[in-house]
Amino acid sequence: SRVELPTTFDFAGTVVDTERFLDVTDTAALLVLRDGAVVHEQYRLTGDRGVQWISWSVAKSFVSALVGIAVSQGHIRSIDEPISAYVQVEPGSAYDGVSIKDVLQMSSGARWHEDYSDRTSDVARLGAAMAPGGSLDRFVATAVPESPAGTVCQYNSTDTQALGSLLVNATGRSITDYMQEHLYEPLGMESDGYWLLDATGREMAFGGVNLTARDFAKLGELYRRGGEWNGRQVVPADWVTASIV
Questions:
Q1: What is the Cα 133 distance to its own chain's centre?
Q2: Any idea what DSSP says for residue 4?
Q3: What's the CA gap between 192 and 189, in Å, rounded?
Q4: Model's pTM, two decimal places?
Q5: Distance between CA 148 and CA 72 in Å, rounded?
């Protein structure tokens, strides 16, 4: 049954007006699920049930799920292996000899400066890799090490892009193709989706998947269910547990 949002909510000791909050945050799509059923759905601004929204870093969760599936299928032998056993990198660069597990946990030690005002920052260089003539795989292959792997946990979009390269090389398939078979179809996604690509055709793994709000919600529901969907274990249960604890 449909539920209405509360008119106000408490945040950090302050009562916040819900409608005003949705206005000032430019919220365009809002879904509430209860036990897997949509009980509240509203669209604002340019929103609509059929609109495909860019994920930005929500894509990282899709990539993590796909890596877990690839491990369960034997495409990746062990996450204790170095990612450089699958991905070509320059000797001495950030991902040379670093375990897949450290990359999954964003403790690769790769440098990551997310300063959008600095044209020489890592995030600016990553954006340039998406431009004509750029290459996300090349960006990963030349990433700069900053600290020993496994010593510092730092949010790093390059880590997820490295996992995207891992998926492609381990499975021999594009991220789009692998996701279509092992997530999109099993979850019964309702609408078409797509990944942003660089000039070489590589997916922008760190943030470039585009889906409708309802289809994004299905990944959250999948994890609430421990990776199971309609009697099928889509993502291994132990992978789900390790991903969220």
A1: 24
A2: P
A3: 8
A4: 0.96
A5: 28
